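Narrative progress, year one. The postdoctoral researcher (J.K.) led the effort to move from monomer predictions toward full complexes, under supervision of the PI. The following entry was the first complex the group processed end to end, covering 1880 residues in total.
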Amino acid sequence: MEEKHHSKKEAPVTYAEVNDTILKMLEPPGTGWYLLLFTCLFFLAIGASCWFYQMWSGFGESGKSHPIGWGTYITNFVFWVGIAHSGTLISAVLYLFRAAFRQPIYRLAEAMTVFAVMTAGLFPIIHLGRPWYALWLMPYPNQRALWPNFRSPLLWDVFAVSTYFTISATFFIVGLIPDIAAARDQAKTRFRKTLYGVTSLGWRNSHIQWKHYTAAYLIFAAFATPLVVSVHSVVSWDFAMSIVPGWHATIFPPYFVAGAIFSGVAMVITLIIPLRKAFKLERLITPFHFDAMSKLILMTSGVVTYSYITEFYTAWFSNNPYERFQFWFRPFGEFWIAFWGMTFCNCIFPQLLWVKSLRTNIPFLFVLSIFINIGMWLERFNIIFQSLTREFIPAAWGGYNFSWVEVGITVGAFGWFGMWMTLFIKFFPSVAIVEIKEILPPPMRNEGHGHGHAAVGAGH
Amino acid sequence: MEGQIVQLNASRKSEEGTGLVQISRRRFLQALGATTAVGATACANPVEQNILPNVKGIPEMVPGVSVWYSSTCTECTTGCGIRVRTREGRAVKVEGNPDSPVNRGSLCALGQASLQSLYDPDRIRTPLKKTRTLPTGPVFEPTTWDEVYSKLNEAITNSTNKKVLLTGELPSGQQDLANAFTSQLGFSQVVWDPMQPVAVAKAAEMVYGTYGVPTFQLDKAQVVVNFGADFLETWGNPVGYARQWADSRRSDKPLRFVHIEPRLSLTGANADLWLKPNLGSEVRVALFLIGQMIERGRAKGVSDDVRSKLSQLTKGISATEVEAQTGIPKEKLLLVAQYLADAKSSLVLSGGASTSTADPLPLLVLTNILNVMLGNVGKTVDIAAMEKPSTSGSKLASLIDDMQSDKVDVLITAGTNPEFSFPDAFGFQYALNRVGIKGDGTGKKAGLVVALASQLDETAQLADYILPLHTSLEDWGYVTLPNGSVSLIQPSMRQIFDTQSLGDVLFTVASNTGKELDPSQTFDAYVKSRYLTLTSGKGGADSETFWRSSLEKGGYFVAPASMPAATASVNPAVFSLSYGISVKPSHHGELMLYPYPSVKSFDGRAANRPWMQELADPITQAVWGAWAEIHPETAKEQGIKQGDAVILRTNDGEVHVPAYVTEHVHKGIVAVPVGQGHSAYGRYAKSTGEGGSVFSLLPKKIASGTDAIVLTGAPVTVVRGLGSGDLVSVQEFSSQEGRELARTTFITGAGAHGHGEGHGEGHGAAYGGGHGEGHHEPKQMYTQREHPVYEWGMNIDLAACTGCSACVVACQAENNIPVVGKKVVAQGREMAWIRIERYYDSVPTEDGGEELKVSFMPMMCQHCQNAPCEPVCPVYATYHNEEGMNAMVYNRCVGTRYCSNNCSYKVRRFNWFQYEWPELLSWQINPDVTKRTVGVMEKCTFCVQRIAEAKDVAKDLGRLVEDGEITPACVQTCPTQAITFGDRKDPNSRVSKLEKSERAYKVLDHHLNTQPAVSYLNDIRYKA
Amino acid sequence: MITRIRLAIAGACVSALALVAVFAQQGGVATNATAQDSASQYPELGVRAGVYNDGQAALWDFNITDHFRYFGPPPRLRGYSPEQPIKFSHVIHVQQNKMECQYCHWSVSKAAYAAIPEEETCMGCHGALVQGKSEQGKKDIQYLKDMYAKNQPIPWVKVHVMPDYLKFNHKRHVKAGVTCQECHGQIPEMEKVERVSSMKMGWCISCHRERGASIDCLVCHGHR
Amino acid sequence: MVESTSRAVVGVFTYMDDALEAVKNVKAANLDWRMYSPVPRHEIEEVTFPQKSPVRLVSFACALTGCASGWALAILCSLDWPMRTSAKNIASIPAFFVPGYEWTILFGGLGTLFAIFAFCKIPSVVRAAGYDPRFSHDKFGVVVACSAGQVTDVTKRLQTAGADEVDVRDSL
């Protein structure tokens, strides 16, 4: 409630303030940061041990069974790829659309993208029966004279995810370069000087550099935009290209993309609220931004809800007995709780955002974002697990054996992601310096010529 | 929801401790080693692999080429001919011998699993001496043959009391020698084999005058009315009868089959009409039918005198009364009577568990009378060729009495396990421990118990000394068949351990006491000379050539001659029996015990074989261990849910088993399969032994008028036990959900035959879209694959498939499919490439009611043209090859399991762990089939190694493979020849023709356009 | 500036073309003949066993299975030549005494497996007639006799170690006219048998392609 | 120490319009100059670099190459060892859209990266003499390279434009 009024009479944010506020985040870490890092490392260690145990003992240590070849790992894969998506959306798509609320949150969202893809990319390998042969999915010349099968959606995944990782990482790093240069110029310790000196690649902010940089940045955004749509479409084709009742649906690509943005924005909120609090970024990330993100959530929630309904409608309208059974089974079958949990988290709970005051209510948003994360995990779980457990042949219907190994690896993924995030926020500017400066009115001797966006600082 | 997840999760424990199923972790360690071993060169592990040649050449042995030996299966007494495939001197597969008239090339699950008896890792390897008995069990130490022989000799020489040879039903060769042995050495022989239908033999004696079990010709009957005889499972000659049954069922005039039994057995599941009488009341049905036959003028087969006596007996028995007594609706009773009356030829059978009551004779006798009345003797009942069991429960009971009263000095057991398979109430163990104790009251033990056994079973454990015997795959022998054929048993491989043939042991024991049993001195010579005697004159002059060719062929087989047109007259003595219901609950609501032998465990002899343990029971689909089939009403009263632990308690004992709640069992009974609950007999048998054996529940009672024990009818209480009973079933859902997977053609009208009813009628389907579209050619998006030479395909006739599961074991044996153990199966990770799906459907009857229709459907990889699994594999580990097969390349597989997800038939199997056979069982590995490693998908290959072998041979001959030359393991062994394999490209092959049959359809093809290479033929059922 | 752009475009095109060119080569690996070119080593055969890649793994084609089974150099490499229990010389037997390969390895034309001869076969000559000239020869023949007398097989060391999932059929290859030397090299000239071919999959495939034999996976990976 | 004759005159500006004024000024004088700013702005671009950046051409070329390569890879690999899956054509054009599409973006993106590196001359280890850390903070800078003789003139020009301070350094 405080935020609502605070900016009314404050002075406009200056370039210097932007620099100082953001670079302050890079100051030597306190105990809290170390605690966070070690928690993440601990989780990561759990996950790594579980994976090694799984490889040592056999893949059966995860809970899959014969009707259910995919489960938690692919759920995690889709979940993390989904998380990744909002980052690119915010950084690229909203860049192209010149959305006003994008700048303060995009860096974090983009870091989230890169690290989430790094997390997601682990799962297809973890879920392999013989992960030591994962290389065979790559089309590299080999003595066997064999190539992979380009007709397989899994190979498309290889292409899509690796491209997505490469491009989003490039986009992310390119965006970081000027900011690192800024950090370099204010670095005090020798370590930081060297670190930023090297990673800024000798960036000098010259007008030629800026010219090409801005041109390239636009092109990157233009590349990343179709990519963000294609990657989750390709991921959805893992399912849609199959014949499994409940998977084989043409609505999957848009449905997955919308779901990805939905979950990704929720994850951004989950991450940014503590960060804003910890680093006192209230002047940069204002209720205006939360309001905008809430609206995005509200919209994508609507799209996702619509998709759910469409799925049911399609199943009914197609008169396909297998499909119909599947969609009867999800809400009323053995695993109804997963379905209704998903419905509550993704469709019903977010509707509260129609209330304006809740859209800027930070604690509420935090809780909501956690719920959405859970809901979206359940959504993938419903799609993958529930469909597989009831396929065509009733004699082959079966169940799942959740195991602690899967839980461990899932936790480990959060540890892995968290580790990178934690390291990142302390070593690199997690709020874009240059991009925020861009929307500030530049210092002008003759006022009135400068025209910046009023998104930062001077809230509404 | 929670229930299932929690239950499944709780069952995940490491199984290595039990040593049952070995899950190896070595592979990953090796992989781990690889990453570290790049620099580590100084490691002691040998790099080399050795290749060992034969020292001397063996003429018939070419490395890599199979050698087949003909022999005879001795698992039950039927005497099926077998062919044992050996590679480099090791038996690797047991198949039926096509030359044998008994089984005509097929073999049941148990017979094929005899290989695992040979390779039982817990086999007795040397002579053993019992040193002491601990509370945990007896302790044996290795000893020498000579020591045992001298002890035995001493005991025999000093014996003043009875000397007894206690055996199972020995193969004729051993039995003939045993006869000489007992007569010369003053032994008496007692035979115990619980699977022998001795009451049936007795009833035959009462009616026909000869003791023995007649052979039947099911294919000559138009109507078969069966009182409980499980002739498609374990009763009589199951393989042969199944073939007869199926030949008739798929013919133009299929027999109509009515099964009357309180429990739905596999045989009952194949019936057109299954009637569920109160246990013990079947006799009234038989009596009613006799009355009806007389009334309808179909009693011409008996004399007027007998007929009048019979009408006396049946007087006043009305359908209403019988309905009240038996619980079978009177319409159905009249229907059965009408079937019988209308049929030109018929067959009435009785036997099995439901006739193993305390008073079995009346029913058995009445069915024989029915056969006589209807003129079936000489048409469908052959009383000339009878199997004559020597088993006698009463003799064994009196032996026990003798032993208890210290009248037995020497007891030699061989090939039987009464300690397990004779009711505990008789006190066999206590009695046996008194063998040799002097009757003078001093308690001094002078006598001896020697067990001759291959496996350390419960009876062998009681012995003072154990002499290890060859299994029948290492032994000589012969089996004389009821029709005069002689089937030879010959060793298919050299003995593995320090074992001897039973015959040679008898020879040695006799010669030690100075007796000569036969001039031939050794058992193999004895078999040869006896065989030549038995077949005297039939081999021509050159006996050596005849002997050689007989060994090759498997014996001397008489062509199944036409049956002597015997007529039988009813022995008037039968009228002295009482035909009331003598077996019934003593008070309302009392439950009766109904133990039955199943196709999976028999009397317990199959329990030491992992294949048989992991074979899903065709009816309950349960694996590893016993269960109790409980009617839902009973279960509700006791608060029992599916899978709960229950305690079955009778006056004589109790067993702990999981509950299998099913309405396909009469509510007055609790049905339990016998054969589990071993306390010895190897690791696999013992692993399911905790709950106890059903034989401990049985009363100390011999069925009146017979030599049989009383199996069924003991009053039993069912109590819910603690927690989960560990019921593991591979199929949880029994409804087809209207999906028309297993389809049926119904024949309507009494006896009229017509296929006009269309597919899958009356499956209560909400989505009936699939009717009559079996042959449509959908428009294809892609041009279909050209198959230049061959296009392999398969056809499965559901009208012939009985669900006996022989194919499942054949597949396991042929393709090195691992047995994974109960825990892993519980996680839904069974590995069988072919499974028998069992569906219960409710179908409308002609009179507007509803009847149960059980469908069995063998399901394996369908080798689809438009296979959903293929395009999703990222590494081409599975693809469509030019011979129309869905190929699976194990070594290319990375284990994404996408193919399995996308397989609409769910026939792909993933190696969740590294499965290894323990030593000795590992000898059965088929060297032609790659062993799969952890993390790899596998599935049915149409036995590609056999295809390759046939192509290899054909190529040498410069021609193409001809129809019928390739028989995948399942096709080869199918007792009913329900499966056909061949080249779909050849329009004249059997498989192509069957595929065009009007009954043909392909599973799910009408919805998915998968274009399977496997087609099915509709089941055929009479509309009840 | 313009020049630079042109250069960049040209570079991109060249790299794309190069890429396409690499893939246009069947099999992809551009390392054609290698130092141990079998054709030059064994000129009289006139048939080269390896065609375009000779079973050479690309540098980055690290196949873990080659290594983890054995803690040491894998016996699945060209040039593998282990010490044998008997210093059997193919030079003496084949080259000097003109024995046919199939006299001893008789099962190659009858079965999938090329058997090591039975000791009985060796004893046919060495039992009474041939006792060896050199010291080593006498020792080895005595060893053979001892083993034969003890009814024990000689523990020969496998030179051509193949994985279980490879089902190679000697009979079919021999009947198709593939000579022993094409895969096993000039054994007659070998004092000690050495593996001259990599016997890796690409090596097999190249020959199958060259001769128009089937390249269906199941031909080698399904069965014998 | 040898005295260098070339000098870099560094003008530090607080206001953007001042800096742009200075740029216009030195541009008019045909001096070798460079402008540093903490933020890219189109006002600056209009003055300093009104032409279009050639990055887009490189990106376009690379994207086209990627598209061709992706398709070529998929088609040629499939043709190299033709394996039928599920009756699908060996060259299954619909399925190969994905590699083609993804490589279009991948190559295009990497090409753009390459273009930035090339045109912006990074990574660079050369110290820019006229650079001042404040230029990444909140100040604008105009650096003019000139001979020692021109220093006074240039300094004046920058001061006229409104530089906060003007610094003269050795060699650019």
